[in-house]
Structures are given as C-alpha cells and as structure tokens.
UniProtKB/TrEMBL annotation:
Organism field: Abeliophyllum distichum
This protein's name: FAD-binding Berberine family protein
Transmembrane segments: none
Family designation: Belongs to the oxygen-dependent FAD-linked oxidoreductase family.
Residue ranges the record marks as coiled coil: none
Length: 459
C-alpha cells in the first residue's frame, strides 16, 4: 500500500462528536477509520489509500464495574491492561478472559474475538459480551435491544468496523480463584524439544481446562551450552494451587518433567504481568500505560491445527526458525479445547470451536527500516506459511480475524463481490461469513464503514 495521511484525527470525548464525525465524513465523501488501541496487524485503523479521517477512541475509556452483578461497562478506547487493572482494584476473585498484551484496545480486540490465558476455562472475550452501545451509519445510538440480535451477533467476533462505531461493551466478568499458578519451562532440541512438542499436541486441548499450556517456539542461544538451538517455551497458567497442578501434569504430560520449583503461585492480576513479560514485582501501574511493547516493523499470520503435526513436519519448522537468527521470529501454539468447545461454530461469528487442537500464530518483527529489509522478513513468513499447508486446516484454511492478514485477500477500492470476499471471509468466519454479509447489507447497504477487509454488502 502507499498510504495517505489522515485528513483529520477526531478524538471524541462524547458520543455526539462521533455522530458529527460520521455526518461530516458522509457529507464530504471521505472514509472513516476507527482506532481504539491501534494494534491492527495491517494498520487498517489508521492507514488508508483513499482520503480518510481517524476517529480515535482513546478519550472514551471509562470502565465501570458492578462487583455484585459481576458485570462491567467498558468504553472501547480503554486498553485490556486498563480493564484488568480496574477489575483487580475492585476484587481479587473477578477477572476477564481476553488477550495477553495490555496495550491492545478493547474496541478492535473484543469485536474481533479475544483469546487469552483464561480461554480454555472461560472462552474468548466476545463470548462474554452481553450488551453494547453502537453508533450506526445514520448516527443513531443503539443498544442491544434497539440494534436487534443480528447486529449484536455480528459485532461479537465479526469485527466492529464493518457495522458502525462501537462506543462501549457490557461484559460479564468471570470468577477466578484467589491464587493461580504460572510456569515457563524451556526445553531445547538437545533436551528432546521435538518429541515434547509432538507429544504436547496430544495433550494440550484435552488436559484439565483449568490449565492452559501455551507453547512458544523460536531459535535462541542457549545459556547452558552457549550454542544456537531451538527453544520450546511452555508458558502456562493454572487456575489453582501448585499442589493441584503437579499431579495433573505428571499424569497427562510426564515427559515435560515439571517440578514444583518451576512454578510460582500468585494472584491472577500478577499473572497478567508475568505473561506480558514484566519482571516480578513490577508495579501494577504499568497496566495503565498505552505505550505498545512491540518493535516498529512486524508481520503476523495464523493457522489452525486440527491434526497433530508429525515430527518430520516440526523439524522443517526448525529449519525456518534457524534462517531468522535474530531471535525475532516465533511460532506461538495456543491450545484450544475446554470451554471453547462448548459454543457452536455459529453462536457468534468467531467459528474456531470443537475440532481445533491449537491455533498457530506466526510472528516476525524487525527494527531496521527499508523495503529490502521488510521484503526479506515478509518473504520468510510467507514461505513458512506455504510450507505449513499440509499440516493445518483445509477447505477453508482457517485464520484468526484478530491476527489480520491482507495476504489472504482484500476488497476492491469500490464494490467487492460476495465471491471475491468469500476467499478471505470463509477463512476467518467459515459459514458465518454469509450471515455477516446479510447483516452488513441490512445495516450499512451503502458500505460507508469499509476497509481492505471489511464485510461487503450484497449489491
Ligand atoms: P485497532 O484500534 O487497530 O483496531 C483494530 C480493528 O478494529 C480496526 O479495523 C478498527 O477500525 C476496528 N475498531 C477498533 N475500535 C473500534 C470501535 N470502537 N468500533 C468499531 N471498530 C473498531 N489478540 C488476541 O486475541 N490475543 C492476544 O493475546 C493478542 N495479543 C496481541 C499483542 C500485540 C502486541 C498485538 C499487536 C496484537 C495482539 N492481538 C491479540 C491482536 C489484537 O486482538 C487485534 O490486533 C485487535 O484488533 C487490536 O485491537 P485494537 O483496538 O488495539 O486495534
């Protein structure tokens, strides 16, 4: 893309200013891009090739918690860190199930799904949205009742951006134990990482749903041997005490060799800091920062594994990781199963339920600017994605909408046919794409809210 600068950035403090922005954009024929946390992988909330305005929700970030009802209203300009911090300041046994990175925005994240460390026990963020406040193309402020169940369904996983501007979500909070247990165990190739990763695939989606055994894979220099190797980092959360965790892992995954000394007990909110990569004893206040922790240049892609990847397939991945030796390339295997299976594929637009063992997230990031540098890394991740085709879901080869990837297809600048958009639409939403198109046609037939991967209306 050769992006333009926005003509104007609107930072509303009040809903009426959003209504004004919609009115003015329509009148002057410019596009609107809505930004909550600005973490879109392809920058679609702040980059465009056509004249556009940004509506930046950062000032609409209030959070009100009702501990008695176990619910909260969260404005979409809030970040996940702000939400977690506010919940923890009111209660030690309430939490919310959403992503790991604290600077991710509520608006994009919850409307697109929201997977995190609590997801095997409690599902994704969008599963827990119980009401919403949305401003539609006509500037009307709608709640669940006035928007109707179709639109309310669409904005819980289908992405807010195609349908209007989401001002706030009402969510149901979840109950968690006062103490949880975390561990991060590393195994290298010399410590049988290949066999362990292979075995993990038979365990991770079936083990006790209170345990989320996440797996990160990257090339690194081992401090033990001083040599470059592949590291399998088993990064995990158990909703309970270490003495209950150990027998579960020792019975179902003894090969990991987990011992008590690997584990740390802590309140849930401290586990949020742990998984975000902050050192122990960091003040919880960091959760309120909006400054992202990521490198300037980045490309991500995703897949779903419905069958275990054989050992020879894993060895091929190691070769790819060895090519990106700057320690900035990673595969994240996020286990499914548990409560994620309790929802049907069509309950909300997020369709990745029973039958998925784990989600694969491919990530590469770099610091140096320049086209050549960028091409090198992007080509690497694209080649890896091609290599993975035999080992992942097929027809469609599914992808996670929140890990947005324009490689899988894009809208035309003007009208896009259902057939053309189906190429990427079915990957993200499977059969739900049809209903998303019907809702879009109903609520925004003129396709005012659009971007390179928005849901097109039927023309
Ligand atoms: P941003 O503001 O860029 O918006 C993303 C999209 O949503 C854009 O199309 C935008 O227009 C639209 N949008 C935003 N606010 C809206 C509103 N109020 N109304 C209507 N449309 C709106 N995901 C995950 O599931 N689990 C995880 O652990 C992580 N971790 C993670 C870490 C890092 C460092 C990054 C960069 C990303 C993730 N993600 C993630 C992915 C993340 O969920 C995804 O990028 C979200 O869309 C980001 O939401 P933001 O509001 O920050 O993005």
């Amino acid at each position: 893309m050769s992006p333009m600068k926005p003509l104007v950035i609107v930072t509303p403090f009040h809903e009426s200013q959003i209504q004004d922005a919609i009115y003015c954009s329509k009148k002057s024929g410019i596009q609107i891009r809505v930004r909550s946390g600005g973490h879109d992988y392809e920058g679609l909330s702040y980059v465009s090739e056509v004249p556009f305005a940004i509506v930046d929700m950062r000032n609409l970030r209030s959070i009100s918690i009702d501990t008695k009802d176990k619910t909260a209203w969260v404005e979409t300009g809030a970040t996940l860190g702000q939400l977690y911090y506010t919940i923890a300041s009111k209660s030690r046994t309430l939490a919310f199930t959403a992503g790991v990175c604290p600077t991710v925005g509520v608006g994009g994240h919850m409307s697109g799904g929201g997977y995190g460390m609590l997801s095997r026990r409690h599902g994704i963020a969008a599963d827990h949205i119980i009401d919403a406040k949305v401003i539609d193309v006509n500037g009307r402020i709608l709640d669940r009742k006035s928007m109707g169940e179709d639109l309310f369904w669409a904005i819980r996983g289908g992405g807010g951006t195609s349908f209007g501007i989401v001002v706030a979500f009402k969510i149901e909070l979840i109950v968690i134990p006062q103490t949880v247990t975390v561990f991060n165990v590393t195994r290298t190739l010399e410590q049988n990482a290949t066999q362990l990763v292979h075995r993990w695939q038979y365990v991770a989606d079936k083990i006790d749903e209170n345990l989320l055994l996440r797996l990160f894979l990257r090339s690194f220099t081992s401090s033990r041997s001083g040599k470059r190797t592949i590291g399998a980092f088993f990064t995990s959360l158990y909703l309970g005490r270490v003495d209950d965790l150990l027998p579960i892992v020792q019975e179902k995954f003894p090969e990991l060799g987990l011992v008590k000394e690997d584990c740390t007990e802590m309140p849930w909110i401290e586990s949020v800091l742990f998984f975000a990569g902050f050192p122990r004893n960091t003040s919880l206040d960091v959760l309120t920062s909006r400054v992202p922790l990521v490198r300037p240049y980045f490309k991500g892609k995703s897949d779903y594994a419905t069958e275990p990847i054989p050992e020879h397939g894993l060895k091929g991945i190691w070769k790819f990781l060895d090519e990106e030796t700057e320690n900035r390339a990673e595969l994240q295997f996020s286990p499914y199963g548990g409560r994620l299976n309790d929802y049907s594929e069509s309950e909300i637009p997020f369709p990745h339920r029973a039958g998925n063992i784990f989600m694969i997230h491919y990530v590469v990031s770099w610091d140096k600017p320049g086209k050549k540098e960028s091409e090198r890394h992007v080509n690497w991740i694209r080649k890896l994605y091609s290599y993975m085709a035999p080992y992942v879901s097929k027809s469609p080869r599914t992808a996670y909408f929140n890990y947005r990837d324009l490689d899988i297809g894009m809208n035309n600048e003007r009208n896009t046919s259902f057939k053309q958009a189906s190429v990427w639409g079915f990957k993200y939403f499977k059969i739900n794409f049809r209903r998303l198109v019907r809702v879009k046609t109903e609520v925004d037939p003129s396709n005012f809210f659009r971007n390179e991967q928005s849901i097109p209306p039927l023309s």
